[in-house]
Amino acid sequence: MANSQSGDSVVDRIVRLISAFPQDAGSLQLSELAERAGLPLTTTHRLVGQLAGHGLLDTAPGGLVRPGLRLWELVNRASPTLALRQAAMPFMEDIQQVLNQNVNLAVLDGRDVLFVERLSRRGSVANRAQVAGRMPLHVSSAGLALMAHQDKSVQAAYLEGFSDPGGTLTADDVRTLLAEASRQGYAQLKAVMDPDTWGIAVPVLNRRQHAVASLGVVVPLREMRLQALVPALQTAARGIARRLADS
After folding, report:
1. Sign (positive/negative) of CA torsion 105, 210, 137, 181?
2. Is there a contact between 30 and 45 (Cβ–Cβ < 8 Å)?
3. pLDDT category of residue 89 using cuts at 50, 70 and 90
């Protein structure tokens, strides 16, 4: 039930509040949290107090607010990504040991790719994939690998509403990339997020041959070895799919 001038329900405001925390900041000032959530300071203060009472947020001296341990506990207890991460981790560790590269695991969420796990190699190129971080799927090899192995209706709806704020890609460009990823069985993007990196990702397919996740690596351009990377990733992806099917 809505009980604010804006028409937002209490649930709407709580979601906005919790979602306002950026992935690269562990805590925010109460005033900054209110601004990011688009809520009045008095409303934010009241909701933070209530959520802190349940352990969903923590407050600290000086007006700092951060996500609470109880929130992490509840999210992870019933998260559908928990089984995926458990199935994938041994294979991700093997990939990192064999290829000595950054490795990430991602799922599709709307028009974004959501990264659920990553392993980084010390001293390697920057890995923009952050656990619980999002990217528009068209700027990520992981996103392209996922969308290329969805139903045609899902792809059509995505392309129909496609827009690139940077103005570098059109819907036809992305359609070509998706067709290429579907035909080859992997997606690759060169120097998109960083000028000296190359992203390679393969789908983790269910019994219907739809992608439920993607497994990818981020490598320096000078270390790009497609003939070694792709077979290793595909073998690992099949192993993850088998473990998911057996769980």
Report:
1. positive
2. yes
3. very high
pLDDT at residue 21, rounded to an integer: 86
Q: Lowest-pLDDT range, 10-19, 118-127, 160-169? A: 118-127
Give me the domains of the chain, ranges plus CATH numbers: 10-74 (1.10.10.10), 79-246 (3.30.450.40)
106, burial (CB in 10 Å: exposed 0-12, middle 13-18, buried 19+): buried
Helix (H, G, I), strand (E, B) or coil at 204: strand
Q: What is the mean pLDDT of residues 133-162?
A: 93
The H-assigned helical ranges of the chain are: 10-19, 30-37, 41-53, 69-77, 81-99, 141-147, 152-160, 171-184, 226-246
**Which tokens is 144 given?**
């392209």
pLDDT digits (tens, 9 = 90+) for 200-231: 999 999 988 999 999 999 887 776 677 778 99
Nearest to 201 by CA among 138, 131, 126, 133: 138
